[in-house]
Design goal:
eight-stranded mixed sheet, binds pyridoxal-5'-phosphate, globular, four-stranded antiparallel sheet, alpha/beta
Amino acid sequence: VTLDKLSLNASLSNPVLNAVNFLNEIAGMYPDAISLSAGAPYEAFFSDIDIPRYIRRFTDYLRTERNFSDAEARRVLYQYGPSRGQINEIVAQVLRNDEGIDVPPEAIVITAGCQEALLITFLVLCRDRSDIVAVPAPCYTGALGAARLLGLQVIGIDSTTCGINLEQLARVCDRARAGGSRVRMLYISPDFANPSGTTLSIIQRRRLLAEAERQDFLVVEDSPYGFTRQPGTELPTLKSIDRKGRVLHAGSFAKVCMPGARVGYIVADQLVRDGQGSDHFLAAELATAKSMTTVNTSAISQAVVGGMLIEHDCSLATLAAGKARHYQRNLALLLDALHRHIGEAEAAAHGISWNAPGGGFFVRMTLPVAADLEMLDVSAREYGVIWTPMQDFYADNSGTNELRLSCSNLNEEALEEGVLRLSRFLRDRRVLAPRHQADNATS
Ligand SMILES: Cc1ncc(COP(=O)(O)O)c(C=O)c1O
């Protein structure tokens, strides 16, 4: 049987949903190319991972701190489990220790990665397809794709190095209301967003929460890169300064523990009133939705992540400290290589620019020409360097002239060589002047 793609769910034809697959395909086609594309964690960190030890730590914790018998501890590991999760107490402690977020374990759902947290959150919060999900433009494709998969309306709000355009967001809310719909939520990464690198200042964070209150929308906060911040420059999460219950806080253990475990979570301590007038946490509704998608997050994976967290005194920040230094160093190396091989002044003269975020995995570059799939194919095939076109990060497919460079999963030599190849590619394509001219121009 051959099925016509157009006979399948319409969202599958949306390029956003295929963005990740496409980049994997390109990487597979050109295995020798240096990938400045993938936002995956640094693989050298995997050599320290000791799964049996973490599972032992977790089952020891069940026996000693939760008074579980051996049989009960075995059941936790091997039996079906509650949809809301099994490491909720540990995650609640991590949030108290690291973020000053104080919520009961019942207000947390442990999910199959942050991705599932986003999907069930969008699914549960949107009453029907007239509800609008506002996202930054550009936005993480996982969030954009999840909203698209659910057939929701998505509107992009300009996001630059200076933050998100709150005036535009207010206009979008007003317009939606006037048209009989509503902006139900804003999805946002306040720290070193993927792909823009944008960080919201404390003033922007407070203004955003005030706007959410004024316009009556919820905020879905997703901050997997906050741990890469330089010591002393920490900013509070939106959730920790939210006094009105506007924020749902999504989390990922992929970047600090391991993506292979597929463990994330969502904090949803808003109250929902049922028909009988009794209240329960929104998390319970999310768990109901989860029970019909993945039933429960793998108990083995939860035990691994739980054990890792217990081993680090229930602090993701402690667990992340050494890794954060690697990512800070790599970002500095990437920016330095761009400076040496292209140079800000020469770039500006040719209409090229890039931002210099204070953390995260990504640098956003703008070209005077389209950074499209055709360009990427030439770059990978002839110059051996892969980057991410940013068009799919935009709800309206704008951003054609932008590309994302990632520094997370490379060593120093590969980063240097990758940027050298990128600069050669740009020079040969006449996006930049050939180097000898540039040397003359700067000498
Ligand atoms: C902003 C953002 N949120 C969430 C995720 C994915 O998290 P997880 O692997 O836990 O699903 C990523 C991964 O790249 C991301 O960049």
